Amino acid sequence: MPKIAGSCLCGSVRYSSAAEPAMTAVCHCENCQRQTGTAFSIIVGIAADSLEFEGDDNLGEFLDQGETGGAVRRRFCRNCGSPILSLVESAPGLGFIKAGTLEDRSWLNPTMHIWCDTAQPWVEISDDAVKIPRNPTT
Ligand SMILES: [Zn+2]
Ligand SMILES: [Zn+2]
User: Among the CATH numbers 3.40.50.300, 2.170.150.70, 3.40.50.2020, 1.20.140.10, which is that of 4-131?
Assistant: First the structure.
């Protein structure tokens, strides 16, 4: 099974990619906290044109903005609401998969944390992780 294969909660949207992930990060921004309903999102960057979707007519899109106004297209399953993919104007060519939708999440082990400025005080980030106060690209 490729590393990048997954689906939303109801299973109507599925995706896969044969490409190797470019990066994995934990994002503590306020918008990810709201969108995911929890304290952060875990994202995997992958070449957007390598992603193949099934059921993508069920994908809805919320047009969000990054800190400096660039578009952040947050795509989710219209049926069950699972956030699946974000396309970020300031990171062209990459798609950011919400890692909780992967079939196999055991390999993730994210070591980069972005938007640490808005991380919840009770979230522990290991001392040897890369900690970025905001987002270097937006
Ligand atoms: Zn769904
Ligand atoms: Zn975020």
Answer: 2.170.150.70
Averaged pLDDT, 32-53: 97
Ligand 1 centre and the CA of 121: distance in Å? 32
Q: How far is the CA of 81 from the centre of ligand 1 (A)?
A: 6
For the record, the structure tokens of 95 come out as 């798609």
Tell me if 95 sits within 8 A of 51, measured CB to CB.
Answer: yes
pLDDT for residue 97 = 98
Residue 138 pLDDT > 60: no
Closest CA to 58 of 88, 81, 34: 81
Element (H, E) at 104: none
